[in-house]
Amino acid sequence: MNLLNLESVSKAFDIRPLLDGVSLGVSQGERIGIVGRNGDGKSTLLKIMAGELEPDAGRISKSNSVHVGILSQSDYAAQDSTVREVVLGDTPIHQWASNSQIREVLQGLFGGHSDDLLDRKFHSLSGGERRRVNLAKLLVADLDLILLDEPTNHLDVEGVSWLAAHLKSRNALAVVVITHDRWFLDEISDRIWEVVGGKVLEYEGGYSAFVLSKAERSRQGSVEDGKRNMLIRKELAWLRRGAPARTAKPKFRIDAANTLIANEPPPRNEAELLNFAANRLGNTVYELHQASIKAGDLQLLDDIYWNIGPGDRIGVVGVNGAGKTTLMKVLSGEGKISTGKLITGVTVKSAYLSQHLEELDPTWRVLEAVEKIANRVQLGNGKELSASQLCERLGFNKDQQWTPVGDLSGGERRRLQLTRLLMDSPNVLLLDEPTNDFDVETLTALEDLLDSFAGTLIVISHDRYFLERVCDTFVGLVGDKLLRDLPRGIDEYLELRRLSESNDGKVKIAKRESSILEEKALKKEIARIEKQMERRQLRIAEISLALTSVSSDHHKLIELHAEQTSLQREFDDLEMAWLELNVS
What we know:
six-stranded mixed β-sheet, Rossmann fold
């Protein structure tokens, strides 16, 4: 069933055409990934499909019965609305609570559906939380087609894995997604649209098949495209020679791929780089002994032993708030351990790329901002780049190098920040979410550059493809204050997290069952005390009546008074016990 069609659609901003006579269609259950350089029109295409933008020419057609939803890069909602109102609207609780799909979405994106979460105000949420709320709103709605613009932004590795599995489980739902997360793209896509030069080129299969098709086309490419074609073949070689879990389900033709990469060397000569790194760094880079790390009064990591050597390429994964960034700051010297010992090698010259953009003079040109650090950079093993060449490697062509810093986008500023760090010739790179706002081509160029980096590399990223591409070993923080080695990589981390959640769930269920039993016992005890109090009140009332009839019997009066006093004392004790049980 065809859901939506674009016929000869064109769209331009100023004099620059982003889309020029584009004709496309989306059918029921299709999974389409959109790739292309930043600024080439990917988001514009998505907004036109959603009806948020009118094309300059051409038409969009869809049936009135087809329901379409879009997740934009900016997350909006009424500022005073709650999470419940944004995600569930006015749906009664008995309806959504009995819907397994809604419960699965709330569990997958938020870890549950408690009132504390659902009653939070949208304006009080962080950027990552807002993204999850708007994503949940789409996933619980009854839609035929969802259009997702960078849905994995602010999601951790675990969240990205859950989202991919959830979308794959909904066979009838059509998905069109823009993302720089190539693992996610390969996991869910069965077709790729590449937006380039105002046109949209179509490829069958996921990201791996797209890389193969690009590599095949590169054989007929012009000399000017030589560098790009080399990167494509290099990435294809990595895909084919990568981890068994990845190559066991290739979505491209194996024979054709092997022919194209027959003479392609490995992405990096690890023995050569390790030898050079050892010469530059010595035997010691960082050592943590019995280290504990806090954020304020909160204990994040405890009793950590970690030895980082020359040439190590380590990926760090973990749950939000487990201490990844704090750990990176400790290694960079911006933070301190609370107990234990940190040993830093005497030859270590580190560079730390944080998640925050460095403030630069907006009047500087891009090349000027880089040359203020150095004119040339030594990558190691005799490899040297000028400031202009390094800028070009990270996506700033000759013309863009003269762009004022103040005119750069967020992604371009991040690229500039990374370029300036590399120009200082560090031998240890500490990268905290380096891939934010980068398009796929820039990521490929960055990976190629890091292949030639002869030093120690430590990376925090939610981009699984990037981590597996540039790192050799992995460590994980699963929220139990420990730093765990992950010999089997990110798959092992996800298994640990599932096990941790399963155990947490069992503990919560046990606590809830225990609480229910305690509540039943409490109610039973209160009812027992109330009956005893009632019996004593009745007896005290009977004694009061009896006292008037035996006023002449001195011994009887003394006996009744004594009983009344004893009963009143017992009643007061029971009343106190009743109050204590009700207050607790």
